[in-house]
Amino acid sequence: MTPEIFRAGKQVKAEQGPTRNSEMYEMEAIPTDKDIVLGDLPGGEGVTGVMSGVDKISLHKGAMKALQNHAEGNYPGMKIAVASSADTPFAEKVGRKALSLLEVLPGVTVWQLLLRDWDGKDVNQIGRQPPLSSNKAMTHFPRLKEATGVAYDRMLFFDDCLWGDHCGMVAQSCREANGKGVVTVRTPSGLGEREWERGLKMYVKPAAKPTIERSVQVALPGAAAWMLTMQEATAAAAARRQYFPTLDDPEPAPPPQEDVSPEQVLATIGMLPNVIVFFLVAGAIREWIGSGGGFFRNEDT
């Protein structure tokens, strides 16, 4: 479960071969509060791992970075949710318990973040028992839209499933009347930093070039219109060109004076996604992060 976020798998000795990644339904037991593993987090010590028998479940580095930035308020207006195809009720329980124990900052768990974003309401769609199914495009996402009130074209979805193309199905089926839909990113090896940034770039690309009317209004496709001063509009265009030179100008932009992250660009032009959806499939990911995957990673101790 949550390959985008977690990694889970049995780690054998070097002479025996590489790490084997396990599915959540393959875990030995549902973790308990006594099964936590402490480690370093920004600001102090926190829960960085959860044991299930001999397997340790932890967050992929990319997922950890994204969630830490979110917890610290670096993505204003952005919220997170989970769509999971956990194979069995047991796998769902393992994943939910891991989410409730793993921390992104000392004292702040992933589950607390998921509830905080929605005023304490659990909007997450986890499992495949009715009314959910194995088809996320037909069940998970329509229910997620209904629960959150967020349109499909304001969602960014990371998925690591290897046995089907959930990204393709969601992108095809989950669309608004304007023809725009969920922006999807496949992460076969888990949610990594590169995949995270690629997703943000993909999300902003449809809004390539805002039109300025009467020098103050910037109309952004797929979103409400923001009223900006000419100075703000100019700054937004400059920031966009600096990071995405091909979006506005046919000629290469001059080298940037300083590093500009996708998050900074998106925040500058008011285009941060309303909802980031992490696909908690019933699987564990490899050692790392990355969209294409999940939250968890699993290692044998």
Automatic annotation (TrEMBL):
Put simply, this protein is called Uncharacterized protein
GO MF annotations, alphabetized:
acid phosphatase activity
InterPro entries recorded: HAD_sf, MDP_1_eu_arc
- Region (Disordered), start-end ranges: 1-20
**One Pfam family name from the record?**
Acid_PPase
Domain of life where this protein originates:
Eukaryota
Organism per entry: Symbiodinium natans
